[in-house]
Fold:
Amino acid sequence: MITFRPSVPSLAALAVAAAVMASFVVTAGAATPAPGPTASPAANCNINSVSRKLGPTYVTSLKVFNVSCARGVSLVRAFHKCRMVKGKKGRCTRTVQGYRCAEKRGGIKTQFSGKVTCTRGRASVVHTYTQFT
Structure:
């Protein structure tokens, strides 16, 4: 007896097709550069060489939107200087370089990690850090 099985694409084949289609969309968008400044509106900044020199034990990531990485690093330093006035577990409750910053934390008794989002108009700087107590 012969049975008929309809052709159903595998999940892997669908994933490959979706990736190919996404690459066409990305390529089409990259063909026309946006007018205005050459700095990209969003950037993941490479902070490997300064991650332990910005205030807390470690700054683990830095992402900037509509602002330069250099400005982001400067803001991170200023934020942690403000925070450390109240001790290692302190919080910065004022504006820093004209940015309003919000912080979320979690951790254990000997260390904590935080995610800080600082905004000023359309510009924003987001960084994560770990502080040993």
Summary: The chain has a mean pLDDT of 79. The CA atoms of residues 66 and 122 lie 7 Å apart.
